[in-house]
Amino acid sequence: MKKSNITTLEQFKEKNYGKRGTKQRDELETGYENFKIGALIHEARLKKGLTQEQLAEKVGTTKSYISKIENNIKEVRLSTLQKIVELGLEGHLQLKIQL
Amino acid sequence: MKKSNITTLEQFKEKNYGKRGTKQRDELETGYENFKIGALIHEARLKKGLTQEQLAEKVGTTKSYISKIENNIKEVRLSTLQKIVELGLEGHLQLKIQL
DNA sequence: GCAAAAGTTTCACTAACGGACAACATTCAC
DNA sequence: GTGAATGTTGTCCGTTAGTGAAACTTTTGC
């Protein structure tokens, strides 16, 4: 495990993604493209300061699967994506259609 | 086809969903839940004044499948949802994660 | 440089699901 | 009521999302 002068998760997140409550810190969005979902999850995971293994455990899957999703090797099912976001990232998934 | 005093599609859409450019007319969003995606597509389709069959044809699928999606009998694949939104509804799909 | 942690890739496997097709039901205009 | 248009439902099948474990590579701390 990497050691640094940062001791709390909050410090980590604030340093890398700004203070809590800012859009930059709390919100991640993308126009949908297959190959961007991986990046979305990847970023969200880092913002939460989690390793793939930790995320996997919270969701009830394996780190190898998380890796494949982040690298867009497997397409995620919407229901699985929801599990990852809600259980793993403790966030909320939102869907928007612009006509 | 139902006949009425409305003669153009634009009139239909304006009457039922407001003027172009308004949020009410152009935007549909939902916190992700399985059973809400159907309603989202259903609403978007009506806003566009399309039948299930017309939508299906534009996307390259069948009306029976569209029906099942709208009624939440089948979960849509993300890639298929994208096709429906972009090809069928001529809209744009957006995905957001709230942490 | 070394070791440990984190991430990637491969392989084998299969239950579950997406999506097609055709038949059926409903709604609507007249 | 009747017929045409629209929407729903049952059945079926090929594809694939997801598992699990192991081997491998990259990154990191010291």
Could you write a compact summary of the structure shown?
Chain A is 56% helix and 12% strand.
How far is it from the N-terminal to the C-terminal residue of chain A, by CA?
47 Å
Q: Looking at CATH, which topology of chain A would you report?
A: 434 Repressor (Amino-terminal Domain)
| The CATH class of chain A | Mainly Alpha
Largest interface: A-B, 35 and 35 residues
Number of folding domains of chain A? 1
Question: What is the string of SSEs of chain A from the N terminus onward?
Answer: HHEHHHHE
CATH-level-2 architecture of chain A: Orthogonal Bundle
Helix % of chain A is 55-70%
Question: How many β strands of chain A by DSSP?
Answer: 2
Mean pLDDT of chain A: 84
Q: How does the major sheet of chain A shape up? A: none
The CATH superfamily name of chain A is lambda repressor-like DNA-binding domains
Structural class of chain A: alpha+beta
Oligomer: homodimer
Number of helices of chain A: 6
In what range is the share of β-strand residues of chain A?
A: 5-15%
- Cα-atom radius of gyration of chain A: 14 Å
Overall geometric form of chain A: globular
Unreliable residue runs of chain A: none
